[in-house]
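mind reviewing this fold:
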Amino acid sequence: MNDSVILTTARLRLRAVTLDDAEALFEAFGDVDLMQYWSSAAHADAEQTRTHLETRMTDSPENMTLAVTWAGDDRALGTVSIMPRKPGVFEIGYIFARAAWGQGVAHESVACVIDHIFASMRARRIYADTDPDNSGSIALLERLGFVREGYLREEWETHIGVRDTALYGLLKRE
């Protein structure tokens, strides 16, 4: 994917994540409660976050992970990832440090990424895979117009055990 993509909103800037973001993003990835519904346990230190970012950046070059920052401040508040799954179909994922909660950052940045995927990446469908108990993520997806399309029992083996998953989708024509 194109690492030079920079997206902006009135308040935010989304740019390619770098290894230099590890310290700031450790605020999210090191948060035990926040990471409860993530596929892996909370990170022990910023170096583990750096390794995670490096893996994300090198294992799947077709994926794009954008760091979300305030306009005029380059410190990462969280990330939004875009993962092509088949022609016209993309998966999104996101995580935000608690300092960004309650300010509309997640809604604004994910909406911006959705617009970009539909407008510039020839997508017909975007979906997200979330733990059915992750009420915050589900509320965000529903506010953005996503519809629950499926429920897969015992889909993931995670640090908190075997978990179900709920699939939410959004079509371009919607």
Observations:
- The chain has four helices and eight strands.
- Helices lie at 22-29, 46-59, 105-120, 135-143.
